[in-house]
Automatic annotation (TrEMBL), chains A, B:
One term of GO molecular function: ADP-ribose diphosphatase activity
Domain Nudix hydrolase as annotated: residue spans: 97-226
Keywords for the protein's UniProt record, in alphabetical order: Hydrolase
PROSITE patterns: NUDIX, NUDIX_BOX
Keyword Kinase: no
Name of this chain's protein: Nudix hydrolase domain-containing protein
Protein family per UniProt: Belongs to the Nudix hydrolase family.
Top-level division of the source organism's lineage: Eukaryota
Protein's organism: Nezara viridula
Length: 259, 259
């Protein structure tokens, strides 16, 4: 009896891609699934994954009847899993439920801060440029990209200033917002019209007393001034993850100058 | 002509729950969808959302034909969206793609550090207790919960020590790992057998030279000792988000003692 072809992983699990396992019809799918599950139980596999393409969505009710649950979906594919070991609790972590954004604190040599006014907001404020971190992107790089996109200003990374965590935010996810300090390498603003209503270099003292600034954003700027005076900062170090060998970035607090 | 009933949001979008909009059959669904989209375009709505329950999964191919894309899936529901404004780029952010974990650095009055050995790992190391942050949970609370679950030790939050960011990790997501310092409030270890192979209070110097410790974990401990000496730490402040009124936690660097 034919079984589905999948990829084994380091946790002794298997992942089946629907697009490379096309079936004649839904009966064919059901029979092959039955045979595959028997085989995988015999082989003592642990997590079984099906990545079902939107064009083969009729597989899902049958997988559901067999005890599969939806884990997540992206790129028009739904990922379902089944935990096979009967004597061991399921070790598959839930999918990501955290949105991560980066905001940029960019101060120039004239003691001016780079601020933007977003379009399409019911409440209007002067904000730090920034946005969501893209998949695969490092946090500081995301801040630099957003500053360049929104304002045309080129920057270099200095330090991490602050982290804000909202445990309950959009899509039922948490929201993490990293404020990084960037050094401007250019001064001429080229505003992005699609998302940004207005953009300017604003005198820091004006910003600190401006009525259209949210308190915690104002506090980030005060904090940056204080940390500068105290000579402390959160520094980023790039290294390699010892097991996956992929890049890792570690942020730690340091004294950056002596008293 | 009947249209689907949904909930309007602050961005002028609408969300339709499949379970509260059951249709007689799939033809009925297709006709009602056609009428609803015409109506919503007339009303100048922006983002249209369908949360489709796994029991009504046959709606998805029809939604896909109408231009809907899968945004995310959880709790056995698939969320699809369609951006209606033709003259404005889609402003719907992609779903969360960041896993967030918390590790705990717990040092007792005898200069011993709380360490665990996990089960079911191909490579075996002494690690800090910790795990993924639950939905709706604050990072420090997650670390305290994991320490209690894995070791039975009660703790209180002291400070955030470090953040590690892996842009490319499991499920094609990024991984953020927050190391927090916790003060132990109890000393008797009660090991959780399901996930933890072994657990102990280990002398810090033993830990710092132990061959079964990953370098960056060792460095977190060195960093904690250094920051303690320097009198600097990342402090957590709880406040309220000015717009949503939900709790927000802001972590910033401070001098916690004078020289």
């Amino acid at each position: 009896m034919a079984v589905f072809q999948g990829t084994l992983d380091q946790h002794n699990g298997i992942t089946v891609e629907s697009v490379s396992n096309a079936c004649n019809d839904i009966q064919d799918f059901a029979v092959k699934l039955e045979a595959s599950l028997l085989q995988w139980e015999k082989e003592r596999l642990r997590g079984v994954w099906f990545n079902v393409d939107i064009s083969q969505i009729e597989w899902i009710p049958i997988l559901s009847q067999k005890g599969f649950n939806i884990h997540h979906a992206k790129d028009n594919k739904v990922s379902l899993y089944l935990w096979l070991p009967k004597l061991e609790s399921c070790k598959i972590p839930p999918y990501a439920h955290n949105m991560v954004g980066a905001g940029a604190l960019v101060i120039n040599d004239n003691n001016q801060i780079l601020v933007v006014h977003e379009r399409y907001r019911t409440v209007s404020f002067w904000k730090l440029p920034g946005g969501y971190v893209d998949p695969g992107e490092e946090i500081g790089e995301a801040a630099q990209r957003e500053v360049l996109e929104e304002t045309g200003i080129k920057t270099e990374f200095l330090s991490l200033l602050s982290v804000r965590h909202l445990p309950s935010a959009v899509f039922g996810c948490s929201d993490l917002y990293f404020v990084v300090r960037l050094k401007p390498l250019s001064y001429e603003i080229t505003k992005q019209d699609d998302e940004v209503e207005d953009c300017q270099w604003m005198d820091i003292n004006t910003f600190l007393s401006h009525p259209q600034v949210i308190d915690h954003v104002r506090n980030f700027v005060k904090q940056a001034i204080l940390n500068e005076k105290e000579g402390i900062a959160m520094i980023r170090n790039k290294s390699e993850h010892p097991l996956t060998k992929k890049p890792q970035y570690i942020f730690t607090v340091h004294r950056v100058k002596d008293d």
